[in-house]
Amino acid sequence: MWNDPNRSANLPSATITMNPDSPSVAGKPGPQPTLEIAGERRIPSPTDDQIRDAVLSLDACTTYAFLILDRDSKNSMEVSGDAREGFEIEHYEGSKGLRYRAAGDFNFTAEQVIALLIAYRNGAAGWRESVRWEEVDI
Fold it and tell me: How far is Cα 127 from Cα 130, in angstroms, rounded to an integer?
């Protein structure tokens, strides 16, 4: 499944533990995630199906083949590409002022991206370790 031998080969089936303090899990008031698709559509508190549909709708033949999942006002995950060409993934930790890119350009499948976005949205343990990240200069 993975082209990079240094990367974990089990992202879609990775063991992911829900964070009980996550607003989407515990239902506590707090920041809710928002999914932005190609800068044109915003979906507050996206469901698994909405995330899946958004990823599968990306088409690199168009001008805007990206989506951003904002977990809160300081943290986000950005995806670009499409199912034909593969995807590139970055995440931003605004409180630390750091940006990371998943190692291996455009080597991610739609199913891998969907699993990662859902885990990230939920604040699930293990999302960060499921991919090898490289820090990117901002």
Answer: 5
The length of the chain, given as a count of residues = 138
Instruction: Tell me which residue has tokens 């082209």.
Output: 3
User: Rounded distance, CA 130 to CA 37, Å?
Assistant: 24
DSSP the chain: --S-TTS-S-STT---B--TT-HHHH--SS---EEEETTTEEEES--HHHHHHHHHH--TTSS--EEEEESSSSEEEEEEEETTTEEEEEEEETTTTEEEEESSTT-B-HHHHHHHHHHHHHT-BTTTTTS-EEEE--
Residue 103 · residue 4 · CB < 8 Å: yes
- The answer to whether the beta carbons of residues 68 and 77 sit under 8 Å apart is yes
Q: Are 77 and 66 in contact (CB under 8 A)?
A: no
User: Hunting for tokens 């901002």 — which residue is that?
Assistant: 138
Mean pLDDT by 10 residues, the chain (138 residues): 35 40 48 92 96 95 90 93 93 92 86 96 92 90
How many whole angstroms separate alpha carbon 4 and alpha carbon 2? 6
